[in-house]
Structure formats: C-alpha cells, structure tokens
Design a protein that fits this description.
Largest sheet: 11 strands, mixed
Radius of gyration: 25 Å
Helix content: 10-25%
Number of helices: 11
Number of strands: 28
Length: 633
C-alpha cells in the first residue's frame, strides 16, 4: 500500500464565515471549513437563487445544428451579467424532454437522494450547458458511432462557442457519466484551448478494450437503438411548431447501429468503409501525452462493481504527472453509482479549485480516494498516493483437477468441460439498465437473460475451482491475472472467467470478471501505462486460431477490486464459454458445442494470481477518510 499522507488534514481548518454546501441565501450558523471527497463546506456559497433556461441551435464546423440548453444564474428573477465559468455536458440522452404531463424538464434538473440537480451549479456562480450529440435529441445530423471523430470535433466546437459567449469567463469544464464521460474524452483529445477540466465517470480511455475486451463484445455500447428514443425530446425555443425537431428526427433515421459497427470491426486495426481506424480515433490514449501537457485537469471516477472500472484506473495512471490536476475516485457500487459520496459536492469541490482557483486543498490531499467493500462504513473510504493500491506480491493459486484452487502446483492432468450456451443466470437487479424489468429473450434455440451492467455466473453450468475457507478477513485488491492452458475441439474458444466470493451458505457474489477470445491470445506491448497487465494486440495479422486438440496458453486479467473476503468465505474461479452479456450469441454458438480440456498442473499449469493480504495490513497502511454514512454535505 502506498500510504496516504496527512496533508489533507489541513483542509479541516475552521473559518468563521463558512456555509455548508446545502445552505441557501438565508443566514446560516457559521460552519467550519471542510474539504474531503463528497464533503465540502465553507469554501463556496450560494450567490444566486435560481436560473434562466434557454435552448438554441449552435452550428458545428460542417453546419450541423446542435441543440444546446443553457442555464444562467439569476437573483431575484434577474439574469446576472457577470462572466462565469461554464460547466458543459454532451449527451445522447436528451438534454431536455417533454414528460407525460407535457412539461419540459432538462436532464440537468433531475437529482436523486445522493446528489442535487446539476443545474444547481448556477447557484454557486456557474453557467451550465447541456447539448444533444449529433443525431440525437433535437440536434440535427446523423450519428455514426460512439465518441467518433465527429463527436470529438462537435465537442471542441461547442466548448469554444461557449467560451466566446458574453456570459462566459472563457473557462469550460465538462461532466457526465458513461457515454457522457466518453464525450468528454472525445472532446479533450481534440484539445480545445478553453477546456480546462473534465470529470469523466465510468468512461472509456481505450475504446476497443472497453467495448471488445479480449476481442469479445459485451453489453456496453451494443444495445439496439431506434429513433423513437428521441420522440420525447423538447424542441429548442424558436422551434414553436416543432418543425425543426421533426426535420432533425428525420435525419436520425439514418443513424448507424453501434452493435453492427462493433461486429464489423473485430480487430483493433480494422477500418471502416470510409477507411477510418475507429478504435484508435475514438480513444483518448493516442493523445494522452498531449492532454497531459495541455494542462487540462482530469478527475476519473469509477466503481469496483462496474464493467469500465479498469478504464478509470488506467486513465488516471496515464494522466497523473501532467500539467493539470489528476484525481481518481473508486467507489463500491455499480454503473454511475455514487454510494456515500455526494457527487454534486465533489464536482463543485473540483471545479471550484480548477476553474475558480479556490484554495480548498483538493490538490494537496493524496490524489486517490477509494472504498473497500466489506469494511465497516466508518473506515471504508481511504486515500492512496499511487497505484496499485497494494505492494503485496500476488499469490499464485493453481487450478487442480477435481475443482480446488490452492497454492501447491499439482501433477499434470486435464479437466474436461463441455461448453453450454444456456448460461442459466440473471444479473442482480441493481445491475439491470431497467432495474430488473427486462425479460429473457430467445436467441435461436437458446434463452438469453437480459444483459446487465455486471456479470453473473451459474456454477452448475460452469467449470469451477474453489479455495479452502479464509482463515481470517482478507483484503483482495487490484487486478487478478489468469493463465489458462486450454485445448478445444473447435478452432475458437470464447473464454469467460469469473471470481466469486462464496459465503458459508454457498451464495456466490461475482467480485471480478474477464474474457478472452482464444484466437486473439497473442500479446503485444500496450501503447499506454497498463500496470503490466496482459495486453492482447488484437491485430488482424496476429489472429491465431486454435489447432483442435492442441493446448494453447491464454493470459488475461480479471477486473479490479478492493474487497474484504470474510473469514470462513471461499474464493471460486469459474469459466464458461458463453456469457449473458453476449447479444450476438446466435452468431457465436457452435453446434455441436465445443469441448475444452483445461491443463491443471505440471509445467503448463493453469493458475490465477491474486493480491491477498490481511485486512489488518490495510487498516494500518492508509489514512481513513471520515465520511458519515447518510450525511448529505
């Protein structure tokens, strides 16, 4: 563990005139200054009591008209003439929509139990802007693919347009999660001069790795889309009769399907029909050095129980050490969850410092805040100076014939596994995009559960290997690496690996997962800092189909975590040849299904390497962050 230092404690110095973040314009009792992740008081107060919302079209460089909603601060009903920083979100999810009662509501106006609406940034002296990406909402144009060249250029054009407006002081920051984090990276790689900060959450740094991890496409960015999704979009202000909206939606009918796009580009170096190498131009890593040198501040936010968790760690690792502030926060939840961190407060803390120069100490505390799942809430959040979180040497556990997982290398033998495409599991409801309302679908002769944001595995249809019970509470951290020596009756194998925490009653919880297409097993050198993880080159020329019956070595990582495995619990490593996140299962399934032989033991033994150490070491190595559960800053 790179221990967090104590400098951050200086942020707790008192201030007689401080106001809590939730304070209004009315007088409040003085509060001490505090600046911690998600807990922010005394440095920023509500100077305004409302906002004016307007919506208009802004022309991109090629003439495409993009719908932009602007929120400007008001006081006593009057719009301020003060020049202020602009916070910008670039979304495909409708910047404004008409609800079932005919009321127009903006995406920035919706909050939740953990966070205030982002339109409330106006009260703290910011202008807020939310724009529909090309081909979505009330924007004109045709959408080709996620975070492609056009989205990046459109983001650049909008940042520079916002910076030039009379209400702007010329400084622009961006915010948003998932796709809306990806548009931040797409914009940043174009280096707009007035972009000073981005706050991408659960967003890709390496587009190929994020969408086709190990060569296999997953749930993310592959769902079918239809122009009907844009029907609730609200017209811009001067579109009184809705005719501009109708024309825009007509253009959206020509939008491409991301799932088809992904299927047509199975290798990193594949090119589109327009001769574009999409995977690199939709990623931030080719411009990582330029972004670092530009001075753009980057706050990466991820969650351990989320598919793109690795992207947040990798993006931080490649942004730290540059001219701009680099921060990382890793929470315990699922996709875009905030848990006990108040998202609004943390965004305000970051943007106050970077865009307004507020000396709130966010730049002096250790740059990494993370929560360990399974620790008591009062001590679960901790600081670290660097990655990986632990210096412990990974422990190698060998797959053993009969289903055990242990530290002793067994004698050479083989385990047979007949692949099945009836995966027989359903993700937990918290991981479902529709919160559990989806129904299973038929894919050919197979029933496919709805794809969730987190993996599931049924041990009854998987090949499993299980440890002995833990003798003490044990901290599992970082990435885990798998070496699988495997032969198949087929030239191809789609290998999915799952690591579960298994309670004494047999209940298993997936804590990490990974995947690799066997023909893409050839490794290359990562073009960015990658923590030394296996990096399949995924180049078309490097594809190596299996020779049926001959063993091959497959190396791949499991997603990162920070989690306590309780005494008495076991770890179970499972493998399958199909996964509930595969929308293209019908195209991948073989009849008859392949049979694998996994080498267990001997010189080519299969194993997993896990970073395991006592929880006592974790507790003594890092300063805890004091966050009261349920407290709203």
């Amino acid at each position: 563990m790179k221990s967090g230092n104590a400098i951050w404690q200086k942020c707790l110095a008192g201030s007689a005139g401080a106001l809590l973040l939730t304070s209004g314009l009315s007088a409040q009792a003085p509060q001490p200054r505090i600046s911690l992740p998600g807990k922010y008081a005394g440095y920023s107060s509500e100077r305004f009591d409302g906002y004016q919302r307007t919506a208009e079209h802004v022309a991109a460089r090629d003439g495409a008209r993009l719908a932009v909603t602007i929120y400007r601060p008001t006081k006593g009903g009057a719009v301020t003439t003060e020049r202020l920083p602009v916070l910008f979100s670039f979304t495909p999810y409708l910047s404004r929509r008409i609800d079932k009662n005919g009321k127009i509501i903006g995406s920035a106006e919706r909050g939740d139990a953990e966070s205030r609406p982002f339109a409330d940034f106006t009260k703290y002296g910011y202008v807020v802007a939310v724009a529909d990406v090309r081909g979505k909402g009330s924007s004109f144009g045709t959408r080709v693919a996620y975070a492609d060249r056009l989205e990046g250029e459109d983001g650049y054009d909008l940042v520079e347009w916002l910076a030039a407006q009379p209400y702007s002081d010329g400084k622009v920051g961006m915010f948003g999660c998932s796709y809306v984090g990806g548009t931040q990276w797409a914009t940043a790689r174009n280096l707009p001069p007035h972009l000073k900060a981005i706050f991408p959450q659960a967003a890709q740094f390496d587009s190929y790795r994020n969408v086709r991890r190990g060569g296999i496409s997953g749930q993310f960015n592959t769902r079918p889309q239809d122009v009907s999704e844009d029907l609730p979009t609200a017209p811009v202000d001067n579109d009184v009769d809705g005719s501009l909206k109708a024309k825009a939606l007509k253009q959206h009918e020509r939008n491409g399907q991301m799932m088809d796009f992904v299927a047509d580009l199975p290798f990193r170096d594949d090119r589109t029909q327009e001769d574009v190498q999409y995977w690199s131009i939709s990623s931030a890593y080719p411009k990582a050095k330029e972004i670092k040198n530009s001075g753009i501040a980057v706050y990466s936010w991820g969650n351990w129980m989320d598919e793109p968790a690795d992207q947040s760690l990798i993006s931080y690792e490649n942004m730290q050490g540059g001219k701009g502030l680099a921060k990382l926060l890793m929470g315990p939840g699922g996709h875009c969850d905030a848990d006990t961190i108040n998202s609004f407060a943390e965004h305000l803390r970051f943007f106050d410092h970077v865009l307004k120069g507020v000396p709130n100490g966010i730049d002096r505390e250790p740059p990494i805040a993370f929560k360990t799942i399974g620790l008591p809430e009062s001590g679960a959040w901790r600081f670290s100076d660097s990655l990986p979180l632990s210096d412990e040497t990974p422990k190698r556990l060998y797959l053993t014939h009969g289903g055990s997982l242990g530290s002793t290398r067994p004698a050479a033998t083989g385990d047979r596994y007949a692949v099945t495409y009836n995966v027989g599991c359903r993700p937990p409801n918290w991981a479902m995009p529709g919160f559990g309302r989806e129904e299973p679908t038929r894919v050919g002769k197979y029933e496919l559960p709805p794809p969730g944001y987190w993996a599931c595995v049924n041990p009854d249809v998987a090949k499993t290997y299980t440890t002995e019970p833990m003798t003490q509470d044990t901290w599992l951290s970082g990435f885990s690496n798998v070496k699988l020596t495997l032969s198949s009756t087929s030239p191809e194998a789609y290998v999915f690996g799952y690591l579960e925490d298994v309670a004494p009653d047999g209940t298993g919880t997936v804590v990490a997962h990974g995947r690799l297409q066997a023909s893409q097993r050839k490794l290359g050198d990562a073009p960015y800092r990658n923590f030394g993880l296996p990096w399949p080159s995924a180049l078309r020329a490097d594809a190596q189909p299996l020779t049926p019956g001959e063993p091959a070595t497959l190396l791949f990582e499991l997603s990162p975590t920070s989690r306590v495995i309780k005494a008495g619990h076991r770890l179970r490593l499972s493998f399958t040849g199909a996964d509930q996140r595969q929308r293209n299962l019908a195209q991948l399934a073989e009849d008859p299904s392949p049979v694998w032989t996994i080498t267990t033991g001997g010189s080519e033994a299969s194993y997993v390497e896990l970073t395991l150490q006592s929880v006592g070491q974790l507790k003594s190595m890092a300063q805890p962050i004091s966050l009261d559960p349920g407290e709203s800053p």
